Amino acid sequence: MNLVKYSLIPLLTTISFSASAAEKLMVYAASSMTNAVNELVSVFEHQHDVDVTTVYAGSSSLARQLVNGAPADIFISANNQWMDYLKNQEIVSSDNVTQLATNQLVVVAPIDRQPEFEITSAKSWLNSLENSRLAIGQPNAVPAGMYAKQSLENLKVWKTIQSKLAPTNNVRIALTLVERKEAALGIVYKTDALYSKKVKQLAALPESSHQPIVYPMAILNKNESTKMFATFAQSPQASNILKKYGFN
């Protein structure tokens, strides 16, 4: 009888501990939002009893993971196309998608290079690249690369520099190639360029030359913690954090 009594004690303790454990939340976000989302998560966790796990990658990669059953609660894409892909796959409902932020694309070079650069001149691009490459997100999949291709086509320089591309799986890798001087130029988001001390901005791609750069956020379930994070991400406090990192 005593053995039964005492054997229940650890079981009851375990149940009590589980009940008080923090809720879990999984946020999938485009790699270009890494710094901003990290701070959003830090502030959110401080305000709520929720443990947040973040996963960053190219929007295309994250969207495909979600289709294959990845356990995300929130998804933040770097363009509408991959969010539309998830809608078509019936992973996301239109009613659960909101626009979180906007961004801009810029051309960057290593900080110690001083090229004379004219964004509308194909010759200027070639002179600046010399025997090197243009680091850019995959033009057929990564949002930053897709936007960049649209812009370069409209600027009439795409065909000239297409053979000089160094395509990457996400925009952060493109930035790293320029930081390491493995690429003479790169096209990255303004938000990434602002927080790198190893690159300089040469020019901004005209916003009229490509589709608007938007970051839609999707709620993937009805969990209370998911709703709380989505509400927080659209709050004035969160908006100030996004602006701090260069998002509009």
Short synopsis of the structure:
The chain is α/β, with parallel strands linked by helices. 43% of the residues lie in helices and 23% in strands.
What portion of the residues fall into strands of 2 or more residues? 15-25%
Mean pLDDT: 90
CATH level 3 topology of the largest domain: D-Maltodextrin-Binding Protein, domain 2
CATH top level class name of the largest domain: Alpha Beta
Radius of gyration: 22 Å
Count the beta strands. 10
How far the N terminus sits from the C terminus, by CA atoms, comes to: 67 Å
Order of helices and strands: HEHEHEHEEHEHHEHEHEEHH
Structural class: alpha/beta
Can you give keywords for this protein?
5-stranded mixed β-sheet, D-Maltodextrin-Binding Protein, domain 2, disordered N terminus, 43% helix, alpha/beta, 248 residues, 11 helices
Describe this structure in words.
The protein is built from eleven helices and ten strands. The chain is of the alpha/beta class and 248 residues long. The protein folds into two domains: 2-102 and 214-244, 3-Layer(aba) Sandwich (D-Maltodextrin-Binding Protein, domain 2); 105-209, Periplasmic binding protein-like II (D-Maltodextrin-Binding Protein, domain 2), CATH 3.40.190. Helix 2 (34-47) links the parallel strand 1 and strand 2. Helix 2 (34-47) packs antiparallel against helix 11 (236-244) and helix 3 (59-67) packs parallel to helix 4 (80-88). The model is unreliable at 1-20 (pLDDT under 50).
